[in-house]
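Table S2 (continued). Query chain:
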Amino acid sequence: MLPNKENFYPLTLVMAIIWVWFYCYLIVWWTYVVTMAYKLHFSILPMVVYPFGIALRDTKKFIDLKACLDKFSVKMRDQKLSLAETYSGQVFQITGLMGFAWMMYISLTENTVSFINEGIQY
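Corresponding output:
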């Protein structure tokens, strides 16, 4: 937004990718460590604890959007807001970057990863 600083978007993009990768890696690591330490079933944290946290965050987003809509209806009646982009980041994070974090781990350590899940039947 500063004059003559328009060309920093590649750096911003790379830093955002690194941040999200680190965050995903931290989530996977924390899930594994807590599950092993407390000898839990491997689906407890991802299927119970994380959705509860996401529900709290999404409730806050909804409340903030409602407050914005109330302000817009008073001050900027001709403007429109929507939830179109609100949840796309989380979908990308879960579907794409979690797998990318594991791929980076495997390629950097040259170890194989065994996903332990008693709920999968094969």
